[in-house]
Write a structure and sequence with these properties.
The complex is a heterotrimer. Chain A is α+β, with helices and mostly antiparallel strands. Chain A has a domain of 33 residues. Chain A contains 2 helices and 4 strands, in the order βαβαββ. Chain B has a single domain, classed as 3-Layer(aba) Sandwich (Rossmann fold). Chain B is globular. Chain C has a 5-stranded mixed β-sheet, with no helix packed on it. Chain C has a two-stranded antiparallel ribbon with strand order 3-6. The chains are: A alpha+beta, B alpha/beta, C mainly beta. Chains in contact: A-B, B-C. Chains B and C meet through β5, β6 and β8 of B and β5 of C.
């Protein structure tokens, strides 16, 4: 499973990069995004859900977050 | 074509939009738009297309920047007075966005050169200030099948329509021929409120961007008119005319010709 | 008769159909030498202004050349 590290990337660039990565993968694929605590984890998961993707899990690991989601085609 | 880090940052506000995304921004970067006229309408068009990242922008104008232009031709500044408009415009466009290709044509469009000029572009924008050019641009685009944006302003009024040749009405479907030549305009017709081309030109740039993205509904089959004093926009539905001399059922115009202009008063329109 | 002129209701003191050329006078339309008339969605030939008529309920738009841009 692909892991995209967005730690150290501020809003909204982290979301922009998540969008760009998702454009290039097939619908139905599961990916992981690593996100910082604070604004990133508050904004990015729900914004990706808003885009229609399926959130499979969000867990905290060592002060950062791992978001697992399945890409859904528009 | 993968976007660079710099492009991701530069175009982030575009990429965030569902209708754009990385895919759309790439379409803009691969897009080619020709702006005919680097003055009132051409200024905001050039500024916004450069900002949007339209990868190849052509700009055509034979004129030099004059002091009287600066009241509305916002791409030119006081130090540019005396400089060729296309060079002045190119400098500002590249300052906004250095990665673009800007092609300058320091010439007036004519029946002889326009077909060759428009051939390399995806979308054409009329930013000219005289009827001869407007009819010529229409004819050239219709004959070549090139989509284009018509724009015209006068004092406090503006109008614009997008033309997809063969599919939607063209300029001659509404105005089959230039206005009667025996009518001499008065001096006040040369006046224009400076902000007006800013509004109209930006609408035209919007159409070019939407065309390249394949997003939204283009302004085809409807003439959008604007009056700045009443602050009213109106939309007048227009049909493709069977009697149109160039795109109708029995076209009488099959080749490009320079329409000779009426006598102008105090360099009206320049 | 009641008409829609440039998107707004208008009425003129004529009951019978009126030639477009007369309508331009009745409504005191500006710049008659420049104006283009769209009647019920169709652009009229300038030569038809005497022949074409407007009747009650018709939709008229007056369109003008705008040649500026620089």
């Amino acid at each position: 499973m692909e892991t995209i590290d967005l730690r150290g990337v501020s809003c909204p660039t982290n979301f922009v990069k998540a969008k760009l990565e998702l454009e290039d993968i097939e619908a139905g694929t599961t990916v992981e995004f690593l996100l910082d605590d604070g604004e990133p984890v508050k904004n990015v998961p729900r914004s990706l859900k808003d885009e229609g993707h399926k959130l499979l899990g969000l867990k905290e690991v060592d002060g950062y977050y791992v978001l697992t989601l399945e890409k859904v085609e528009e | 074509m993968k976007l660079s880090e710099e492009q991701i940052t530069r175009y982030s506000r575009h990429i965030l939009l569902k209708e754009v995304g990385g895919k759309g921004q790439k379409k803009l970067l691969e897009g080619r738009v020709l702006i005919i006229g680097a003055g009132g309408l051409g200024s905001p068009i050039a500024l916004y297309l450069a900002a949007a990242g339209v990868g190849t922008i052509g700009i055509a104008d034979a004129d030099e920047v004059d002091l009287s232009n600066l009241q509305r031709q916002v791409i030119h500044t006081t130090p540019d007075v005396g400089k060729a408009k296309v060079l002045s415009a190119k400098e500002t466009m590249l300052a906004i966005n250095p990665e673009l290709t800007v092609n300058t044509y320091e010439t007036w469009v004519s029946a002889e050169n326009i077909a060759g000029m428009i051939a390399d572009y995806d979308f054409i924008i009329d930013g000219t200030d005289n009827f001869a050019a407007k009819f010529l641009i229409n004819d050239a685009c219709v004959l070549a099948g090139k989509p284009y944006s018509h724009g015209g302003i006068l004092q406090f009024d503006g109008q614009t329509m997008t033309i997809k040749p063969g599919e939607s009405p063209c300029y001659r479907c509404i105005f089959p021929e230039p206005p009667p030549k025996d009518v001499i305009p008065t001096c006040s017709r040369a006046g224009v409120i400076g902000v007006l081309p800013g509004v109209l030109g930006t609408l035209q740039a919007t159409e070019a961007i939407k065309y390249l993205l394949g997003a939204g509904d283009l302004l085809t089959g409807r003439l959008l008119t604007y009056n700045a004093l009443r602050m009213r926009f109106r939309e007048i539905p227009v049909k493709k005319s069977a009697k149109c001399p160039i795109c109708g059922d029995h076209p009488t115009i099959t080749e490009l010709k320079d329409e000779l202009e009426a006598m102008t008063v105090c360099d009206l329109g320049h | 008769m009641n008409l829609t002129v440039n998107g707004k209701p208008a009425s003129i003191a004529e009951e019978n159909p009126v030639p477009v050329s007369q309508l331009l006078e009745l409504l005191r339309v500006e710049q008659r030498e420049y104006v283009t008339v769209e009647l019920n969605g169709d652009i009229l030939d300038r030569g038809d202004f005497d022949g074409a008529t407007v009747k009650d309920g018709d939709n008229v738009e007056f369109l003008y050349f705008m040649g500026g841009g620089r």
